[in-house]
Structure formats: C-alpha cells, structure tokens
Write a structure and sequence with these properties.
This protein is an all-beta fold and 124 residues long. The chain contains no helices and 11 strands. Strands 2, 4, 5, 6, 9, 10 and 11 form a 7-stranded mixed sheet that branches.
C-alpha cells in the first residue's frame, strides 16, 4: 500500500515536499516513481529513484527544481518541489515496482503499485 501526502495550495515560487509512505512491502528493493495528472491532460512522469537511492531521473519540465529522495528506514519516498509554477498544478501520484537490479523507470506501465494521489495547486 502506498499513501501519498503533502499536497496543498501554494503560490508560484513556493516550495512543497510530498511524501509517499509504503507499507507491506520490502521497500528497499522497490524502484519508486512520481507521476502527475493535470486537469484535462494525460498522466505524465515526474521523477524516479532506484531502491538504494543511487540512481534518479527527472522529467525535463522539473529538472533542477524538483528532487526525489528516499529513506528506506522509514519506507518513505519524497518529492521536494521548489520554485513551483502554475503549470505544476496536478494530482501527484507515487508508484512502485520491484526491481532488485536497481533499474529506474519513467513509463507508467512499468509500475504495478500506485498511491491514491495528492493535489498540488500553484496559484500565479
């Protein structure tokens, strides 16, 4: 089970940190990803991190502003979002898939466990 939290209403330029707590899983062997879906748009990839946290990958639209990290002792993955823009407004979802090889994935179909989503709204 994945439980995302930390969303909210902020102004452009502000920061937010999303969290995704995992339960019932061997978290350290899960590749984790963040995706988002804006109103009227398709779900899009945001960031991914390997099980050990030594590999990350970002969508171009968030590179340099967002940072994905994880704390395997707490079974939690984070998405630190800085310099938020109105176009970052979306429901953010965390996702997991088992990967003992430590690979990272940016396609949604690669993930088989999804959280319920948390709303992020950035006003201009």
């Amino acid at each position: 089970q994945l439980q995302a939290s930390g969303g909210g209403l902020v102004q452009a330029g502000d920061s937010l940190r999303l969290s995704c707590a995992a339960s019932g899983r061997t978290f350290s062997t899960d590749t984790m990803g963040w995706f988002r879906r804006a109103p009227g748009k398709e779900r899009e990839f945001v960031a991914t991190i390997s099980g050990r946290g030594d590999s990350t990958y970002y969508a171009d639209s968030v590179k340099g502003r967002f940072t994905i990290s994880r704390d395997n002792a707490k079974n939690t993955v984070y998405l630190q979002m800085n310099t938020l823009k109105p176009e970052d407004t979306a429901v953010y979802y965390c996702a997991a898939r088992k990967s003992r090889s430590g690979d990272i994935y940016y396609r949604a179909y690669s993930y088989n466990y999804w959280g319920q989503g948390t709303q992020v709204t950035v006003s201009s």
